[in-house]
Amino acid sequence: MSETRADPPVVMVLGTTPAGGELALAFQRLGVGVALVEILDAAAVIAKMAEVKPRYVVAASPDVPPEILIAAAETENVDVFPTPRGARLSLDREGLRKLAADELGLPTVPFWFAGSAEELDAVARHAGFPLVVSPVAGQSTAGSSVLTRPEDVEAAWKLATAGGGSPQRVVAETVVEVDDEVTLLTARSIAPSGPTVAFCEPIGHRRSDGGPLESWQPHQMSPAALDAARSIAARIVNSLGGRGLFSVELLVRGDEVYFSGVRPRPEDVGLLTLRSQRLSQFELHARAILGVSLDTIMISPAAAEVLEGGTTTVGVLSEALEVPESDVRVSDNGAIAIATAPDVVRARDRAHRVSSVLRAP
């Protein structure tokens, strides 16, 4: 008598964004059933779960409130990613900095917290100038400013708290001269022997004022800096727990590496892995969650520029794709120009040429 195979598990992906679509495809290619749903509220998500009966619930967007993940995690026989704790801490600069610096002992730039303009003024007089002032909640840089003199304390406080979120607190960080901003994509999964982590090649990135987000892989680091980066990444993702791909943000100065932040999901900076790696960041995320074999092999140096807004015509695409080894991904939110080359310098040049065509009036 032949054995009957169990039905494949179902993954419910929260977030009908381009990233959610890419993640859904990654799961589908592995033979998993996928329900891609729009984020509403906890009651709507629980009702949808009762309908599709998922084995896994995965937030593809940072806009999914931790409360929804908590409600989903309370359902029997359902694994939720990121973990509610990981999702909450990734949006809580105060909690994340205390975890990294105080509990894990990770190197960070000096920081202080303030709950009023008066407290911020006291911090500034103690720490000195300049300081970067940001809201403690949220993952975007909106509300951040550089404080350079005592007269600007009130304006910096108002800007950081203008969103009206809770709590009304800010973080002030010393401005440290660094060479590079780097993201280390780190896949955490569970093997029979216990938790495992795997690292992609470092991704360098920058965003000029008003310009696109530019990223490139691999970003060259000294052996000492790379070892430090991997140690920091492993310690923070193991502390957050769960399975999946984590985008660990780092500041690098020579051999010194500082922890900056972590996001428990694929991010825009990793979109170039669609062409640079054998498995893209979305495929790594899916495989790590499912607990199946993965690798972080890079097949070509690559670069990308992420463009926000605008429209792209067929004629513009045709011109842009004349650049050798180029690719363009278009969505309602904008477009991404990706290019590969034998080395990062040429890949960055090619990606910029594609981006320039897409941005031309």
Overview of the structural elements:
With 361 residues, the protein is of the alpha+beta class. The chain has 4 domains: 10-81, Rossmann fold (3-Layer(aba) Sandwich); 110-174, ATP-grasp fold, A domain (Dna Ligase, domain 1, 2-Layer Sandwich), CATH 3.30.1490.20; 177-299, D-amino Acid Aminotransferase, Chain A, domain 1; 302-361. Helix content is 34%, strand content 28%. The protein contains 12 helices and 17 strands. It has helices at residues 18-29, 42-52, 66-73, 84-90, 93-103, 117-127, 153-160, 223-240, 273-276, 281-290, 314-320, 344-359, and strands spanning 10-14, 33-37, 56-59, 79-81, 111-114, 131-135, 145-147, 170-174, 180-191, 194-199, 203-207, 213-217, 244-253, 256-263, 302-308, 326-331, 334-340. Strands 9, 10, 11, 12, 13, 14, 15, 16 and 17 form a 9-stranded antiparallel β-sheet that branches. The chain has a 4-stranded parallel β-sheet with strand order 2-1-3-4, with helices on both faces. A 4-stranded antiparallel β-sheet has the order 5-8-6-7, sandwiched between helices. Strand 9 and strand 10 (194-199) form a beta hairpin. Helix 2 (42-52) packs parallel to helix 3 (66-73). It is globular, with a radius of gyration of 21 Å. The relative contact order is 0.11. The mean pLDDT is 92.
